[in-house]
Each structure stands twice: as C-alpha cells, then as structure tokens.
Amino acid sequence: MPDPDTATATAFDPADPPVWDDAFRRDFAALLTWRRDVRRFRTDPIPEDTVTRLLGLAHLAPSVGFSQPWRFVRVRDPGRRRAVLEDHLAAKAEAGAVYDAETAPRYQALKLAGLDDAPVHLAVCCDTATTDGRGLGQQTMPETAPYSVVCAIHTLWLAARLEGIGLGWISIVHPARLHAVLDLPEAWTLVAYLCLGYPEAARPTPELIAAGWQARLPLEAVLAER
C-alpha cells in the first residue's frame, strides 16, 4: 500500500496549500447530507484497489498523539461471516426485549444490517497496547484512543460515499463474541463492525427518519452555551 502522506504530498504543494471555494464547500455539505448508514446493498464486488484506496484515506484520520491506534480486519472467511450474522440476529432479538408492546413490532421490522449482501466486511479495532504516540494526550483521557478510531471510521465513511459506496455500522452485536469469532489479539478492542458495498439506492434521508423511528433534532436542541 502506498504511503498516504507521500501520496498527499505529491498532490499538493506544501508551500501553496489548497484553498477551497464556495463550490467545494457546497459539495462538501452535499457529501455530509448524502452520507447514509446503509443497510441495503447490491452484491456486486468492490474492486480490491478501491478498498485499498479507501483504507489509505481512512489512515489519514486524526489520532491522539499521532498514535494511529486503528486496526482494520478484512473478514473474508464465510464461516466467520456466518457467525457474525448469527450473533447479530441473537443480539437484535435480545435488544428488542427493552421495547414496549407498541414499539417492539416497529423495532423488529427495521432492517438493521446488510450482512447477507455486502461484499466487504470490516472489523475496526483499537489497539490498546500500541506504543505509537507514546501515550501523548491519553494520560487524563485514555478514551481518546477509541475516539481516534471513530475518526478513521468517519473518514472511511465519507471517502466511500465519494466513490458511490455505502457503509453500514452494525452495533447490535456482542463484542466479546465477535472478538472470539475473529480471533483478535487480546489488546485489540472492537470498535465497529462495518459492511461496505454499493447501495441498492442512494437516499438523502436517513432510513430511520423515513421509517418514522426518529426525527433529526434541531441544532438548538444540542447546542449549549456557558
């Protein structure tokens, strides 16, 4: 895999950093709007060089102390994939028990994973034992290491959307079980299990809004001042 910093350096002159215009800012806003948590995938394969390029872009994400604690695990083995799907279905059934009689049927009707059809499965972990970065920035907030991994996931999400590729984050799983299924190193903590593939359809509206599960909160509902 080419070094992402070297690739970036060849694209931009450090003495003349890029300035993004109004058109780019509009396109960036559109990218954020059209980034969706995809559950419905076509089965078409993603070219391997595309997957490598997307992971290289994710590797450019910010990280605390430049520790780069993310670890990407391509899950190709059919048996492991099947075990992940079975765990998801069990976890979904368990999670449904918290809902009342009115909400439970709506929950069960939601499609919450594209594990059957997505061509690429990716487990993203945080290496809690890495010495890269020498612990800078983590002494008082050790949680910044997994936060850094989330930054890499979001970078991957946006980069994938630019290529017309959807990403789905499956959180309804048992992390300890998946850790065993994937035979992960003890120091690697599962942060996300992702599906990547070409979506059946591109939609600017989140599926949970369309399903009537939850509306988007207005900005003033999440903004405070002190």
Automatic annotation (TrEMBL):
Instruction: Return the SUPFAM superfamilies for the record.
Output: FMN-dependent nitroreductase-like
Record Pfam families: Nitroreductase
InterPro entries, A to Z: BluB, Nitroreductase, Nitroreductase-like, Nitroreductase/BluB
Query: Where does the Nitroreductase domain start and stop, copy by copy?
Result: 33-198
Q: What is this protein called?
A: 5,6-dimethylbenzimidazole synthase
> Which GO molecular function annotation, any one, does this entry have?
5,6-dimethylbenzimidazole synthase activity
* Signal sequence interval, chain numbering: none
Q: Which UniProt keywords apply?
A: Oxidoreductase
Q: What class of enzyme is it?
A: oxidoreductase
**Organism annotation:** Roseospira goensis
- Gene3D superfamilies, alphabetically? NADH Oxidase
The catalytic activity of this protein is classed by the Enzyme Commission as: 1.13.11.79
